[in-house]
# Entry
Amino acid sequence: MVVLGIESTAHTASVGLVDEGAHVLAVASDMYKPPSGGIHPREAANHHVEVFPSLVERALALSSVRPSEVDAVAFSQGPGLGPCLRAGATVARILSLAWNRPLVPVNHCVAHVEIARVLSGLDDPLLLYASGGNTQVIAYSRGRYRVLGETLDIGIGNFLDKLWIELGGTFPGGPQLEADAKTGSELLPLPYSVHGMDVAFSGMLTAALALSARGARRPDLSYSVEVTAYAMLTEITERALAHLRAEAVVLGGGVACNDRLRGMVRGMTEGRGGTMYAPPRNLCVDNGAMIAWTGLLALRAGQSVPVEGSAVAPRQRTDLVTTPWRGS
Ligand code: AMP
Ligand code: MG
# Structure
């Protein structure tokens, strides 16, 4: 069985093809980069509409899969930005109708867990999902993936991007801030905002900008922000592990490309005698392959929808979707 997956929750338009053995046959992605400032949903959606036809062609060519060999079309149903989701869902509906193949809606956050789960071979890992818009600790319990902890204000990636742009840089800030942090050395005091299993970043944003206005060096700020923010994420991940008496952690989301975050979570998990797995970077960020793989699991469990029932769900909560392939 081969499934084609369409991802378009935010900046990234992506098409992936995956087979039954979880082999990633192709990923073709194109990220919308705003000319200045943050993401504008309508402009990102226009970008996605423009690039999707060539991404579909590229993914098919890369995988040498013919349209007649595609068994189903999966798409990100939510959560995400409405106009962006609708662009991807429209492409998925068209392909499903044109090829006469089932249409399978997929929850984006669940897809991050499932791709990491199959690649790692870990049966029941906890996911630290650190992306632009989302920051969550997710674990499976009694028939659903549940959000155990999350950001109370902005996503970690949006926080890093906003800070970097305010400091004079360009989008996306996370990777550039990572490079800058490597030359920083002084740990500046920043708010460490952990509330039980939740975190918050807007106080750190304000404090970092205030330090910058008072002349703090940017590499020291980048270093301090990384150390403080990733320590917060590591702490809530450890707390979730301890509560669940669990041992395995997987990472997902663009910020999970970060070496310092990977190292800190790995150190914590292995220090407890557990296992940490981070997918290759092209599968950590938003990608069509994770949607295709989760769509394949869902289809095998009998989940598909008619076009009339395929509305996107911008606010879809992880714990509202059923995951019958995981049992109960
Ligand atoms: P996503 O929302 O999952 O597509 O991820 C995009 C976010 O990941 C953006 O906010 C980026 O700044 C951030 N990001 C990507 N690479 C890195 C990195 N190496 N370190 C920190 N943040 C990153
Ligand atoms: Mg994501």
